[in-house]
Amino acid sequence: MLLEDLIRLLQLINPGHNLTGASAPVYTNSGSMVMGNVEIHTGSTIATLETVTWIITEGTGIVKGLASEDDINLLDPKPAVIYQPASTNYQLHSSRIIQNWVPSTWNPDIKSYVPSFIYGQTAAYLENTTGQYENLKYNRAVSVPVGSYVQRCFIKKTAGASGAFPEISLRFSSNEHTICQINTDTGVPHIRLNGLDATASVYEDIPGWWTVLLDGTNGTQGTYYESNVNVAYSPTATGDTDPTGKGSVTITQFEIYHNKPVEAVRFYDPAVTKTSILTRSATSYASDYDNNQDDLIAYYLEFTVYGDSNVLSDFLKIATNNVVLDDGVNTATAPIIYGTHHRVGFWTVGAEMQINVDGIWASITPYDGQLLRGTSGLFSDSEYPGTINDIIYWYVTDKANAISIIDQVMAA
Fold first, then answer.
1. Do both 78 and 114 map to the same domain?
2. What is the DSSP string of 184-240?
3. What b/e readout covers 302-336, taking b as 16+ CB neighbours within 10 angstroms?
4. Cis geometry, peptide bond prior to residue 77 (ω within 30 degrees of 0)
């Protein structure tokens, strides 16, 4: 499910139960419309539920309440807090390639818009039937600072080799220029000109579409940027390309980001532009953790992260492929995989704490009695996107009680 589709779905869900309570943590979202399954349990069993306040702010409106647990459990994937980092897409007319991009020499013989996976947008179908150099490009005169750049676009996957392959390119000057060919059947990239010293990576993160990323460095101050799609090139015996190829490509959503990790750009929500660049602030989730006690507690949550990040305030974070529970003196850690949906539980009781990932307990670690807290809430301005759902919090009687509860949830 796409992020836009998920958000629209959440806006349509019956709010169900309004969950409120004076002693419950308050999560305030000043970003996009999202919902999560957030619970606080006060007894020693899963069945005892204290109330929680969940406030969702979109623009000037405030929505209180959340979908009932029965509603949430019917959804796949479940509703989640969706975090997007701050970013700027410098590419204009990101999807309006046919209307607003121009050819260098020859126009594609056939041009039409076709459905795209991006809600409210279309993709450009371009076909070369003559074997001439047919392309579309967008050139924008603007000061381009030195630094790293990531270009991202999406190309529709094909089945069956046609003998012709599209190319994309990113240019800041005659020397700062990289051209990359994409095999639309296999996704294999081939860089044939590399003035940006770029690397190319291709993934099928969206079924039927290749996510194509060029990650390079502009070494000199530029006066323009140029994105280009060459409709069809043919491989040669030497591994280079022949510009007389015939074929077609379906392509959409070109983006250019400055000084952003390519691993993060890969998972950005599409930033659709027309006549101006699009700058997005990081989604902000402030949280009142003063309402949480530090001892005799257990937590459960599910998340997907794509790089190092704080997850819950400063006490639960991701660092170097590990989830870390931090009291400011001691840490409990367990391995995770970036881009994978994980289920995490942890507890603090007396002078001990322990963390569980996907049903596997790490070693018990010393605990100083107080979790590390900062002013941040969820994610706290990470460079990497992420999602959290099913945040559950229990007051427990002892260590055995905490372990038993988390084991029950992990086994469910």
1. no
2. TTT--EEEEEETT--EEEEEEEETTEEEEEEEEEE-S-EEEEEEEEEEEEEE-TTS-
3. bbbbbbbbbbbbbbbbbeeebbbbbbeeebbbbeb
4. yes
What's the CA gap between 326 and 316, in Å, rounded?
A: 6
How many domains does the structure of the chain reveal? 2
Asked if 116 and 260 sit in the same domain, the reply is yes
Chain segment 170-213, per-residue pLDDT in tens: 999 878 899 999 989 889 998 988 999 999 999 999 999 999 99
In this structure, which long-range contacts are made by residues 15-18, counting pairs with CB atoms below 8 Å and at least 24 apart in sequence? Answer: 15/63, 15/65, 15/66, 15/67, 16/65, 16/66, 16/67, 16/68, 16/71, 17/65, 17/66, 17/68, 18/64, 18/65
Cα distance between residue 331 and residue 347, in whole Å: 13
Greater confidence (203 vs 9) lies with 203
Q: If we measure between CA atoms, which residue out of 151, 292, 139 comes closest to residue 214?
A: 151
Is pLDDT at 17 greater than 70 in this prediction? no
Give the pLDDT confidence of 250-302 residue by residue, as tens digits. 999 999 999 999 999 999 989 999 999 999 888 776 665 556 688 998 888 88
Q: Which residue matches tokens 């959804």?
A: 75
**Same domain as 359, residue 312:** yes
The H or E element that residue 400 is part of is helix 399-411
pLDDT digits (tens, 9 = 90+) for 271-280: 999 999 999 8
> For residue 290, what pLDDT is reported?
57
- Find the domain containing 155 and state its range: 87-280
Cα separation of 141 and 209, whole Å? 30
In angstroms, rounded to a whole number, what is the distance separating the alpha carbons of residues 199 and 388?
31
153: domain CATH number is 2.60.120.260
